[in-house]
Amino acid sequence: MKTQLFVLSLREQVYEYLRNEMMTGSMTSGSTINLNKIAEQLGISKTPLRDALIHLEIEGFVTILPRRGVMVNALTLNDVKNAYEAIGIIEASILLDCFDRITPSHISRLEDFNDRMIKDVQSNDFSRLFQTNLAFHNVFNTLSGNPLLNKFMLPIKHRLYDFQGQSYIRDWELKNCEEHSLVIDFLKQENSQQAAMILKDFHWSYSVHEAFIKQFYAMTEQN
Q1: Is the dihedral of CA 68, 69, 74, 76 positive or negative?
Q2: All structural domains of the chain
């Protein structure tokens, strides 16, 4: 049986390159992207570069300014508030919709991911925290009958961590893990309404996490 290889298109490769530049801080919020420099650096034409930038603009990472270039978007507190509200509504809806498809195996995976996050935070190792957190939520998000919902949320979640330079807040991450534990407990009790409520009204509530959010993004601005 042959192994099927999936090769990224040139546009996708450029997209991943630009995203990495943003995540590592090589491209900072509010800066202008030099298209000629990047095209020359990557040895490509401007066509795949423009295609990648259009993709990034749709996801909210950049703004294409006619005849003025491309600007990397800053993330405002209002953007964060809107993102939290949108994700909370969608994840709660997904959980309610797919509740009857959540098995003990899924709950065990949720526990494993959350335990891994807690151990990493307690040891001040934040290197894989974002990916582990995504994996935790994807245990139920990927059970949705509408895969577009999770696809819609992914770039929003990435935006929330743009330009953050690994400046995690230990107490905040532990609070997030406590909320994860509450979701797990209610799933074990087969109480879907309470599990969804924790996601929407606590875990993804801007007001509940406002102090941490303002501290986190103030830290980001200083990096």
Answers
A1: positive
A2: 10-72 (1.10.10.10), 77-222 (1.20.120.530)
